[in-house]
């Protein structure tokens, strides 16, 4: 309904604002003034007391958060046994029982390795704990970020090489196998060399290697390996490495070309280290009998030497040398192999020296009775090595006669009888075999002379990396 006009005031109606509205308006004004004040303060040289307090509070809070996060990261570092006993029945299969949670970096044809820190490790460092020499499952490994190392950890500066060997470091063949992939990595990475080596066998720490390997690796890397024994570390205190490279597969995964390049580098560095300046007449043929004493030696050395000496005399320029590796210094061995085109030797560690010959040199190998059936794939290691180093394995002679085994010939127990047996000879076979090898080697040497591509000269150009 419509009110009477007399009831309507001549003035406009005034509506009083509510307290909530007033509070909102005042808050908005205060906030706007605060923003303007802060903007103005940005243009002044010194911060206001309120801003300085705010920054200090903010920085303190951030530092506390980072400290808390850092402590949580340190607490989260988990150490696992270096030797994973779950894989004890197949320790060399897959990624091995050594550091079993880790996978290798591997490009086709190149060496397999792990590097810390790296993209694969998400920037984390390798840490080790324990230095047990008898039980590998009592030694441990973990990964940690550089700013969140485990409590009581020591950070070791420089590059560390960590080698795994399933066998041992005293035998020159097995020890070279463990060190060889580091040579390939060294060559691939601009000749970067380690400050120290950490050696493991089945997860157990090893404190030394053999003098032969020490000398050759010293020549290759510029100084003899410093083997870390951790005698300055308490048992439960971790050691973390600023940079570490781990090898677990020897030369596995490497192409033949890459293996030959690595052997070339060791050979060249060894010759430089031993001050060898060889000037050989190219048609000259060096034939070396590298003999053993005791196990796997020849029963009648005199008769065997006479056979090879007679055949050598039939070829112009052939020179026979007879030597025992255990009577030679490392540089003596390097020099002897540098003068050798045909290496004649029983199966054994001394044959590891074969890569010190020039490429395309020849190897003639000899076995006692029983090895073919019972020795397994290990009996072929020097045939394989010959190929990897760019040599020519000219076959092997296996003695059909030898010590009697009381069990059937294919019984595995017979290997304990045959393993260290001695070797006889077959004059007819040895004569024909040697004659054929000499013919091949002489033809090759004459071809090299004609084309001026003597391998001993070209080897001097392989001492570079990269």
TrEMBL record:
According to the record, the segments passing through the membrane are 21-39
Query: What subcellular compartments does it reside in?
Result: Golgi apparatus membrane
Q: Which UniProt keywords apply?
A: Glycoprotein, Glycosyltransferase, Membrane, Transferase, Transmembrane, Transmembrane helix
Give the GO cellular component terms, alphabetically. Answer: Golgi membrane
Q: Which GO terms describe its molecular function?
A: pentosyltransferase activity
- Topological relation to the membrane, as annotated: Single-pass type II membrane protein
Q: Which residues form the Glycosyltransferase 61 catalytic domain?
A: 202-363
The record's principal subcellular location, in a coarse class, is Golgi
Q: Name one Pfam family in it.
A: Glyco_transf_61
PANTHER family assigned to the protein according to its UniProt record, in alphabetical order: GLYCOSYLTRANSFERASE, PROTEIN O-LINKED-MANNOSE BETA-1,4-N-ACETYLGLUCOSAMINYLTRANSFERASE 2
The protein here is known as Glycosyltransferase 61 catalytic domain-containing protein
**Source organism of the structure:** Rubroshorea leprosula
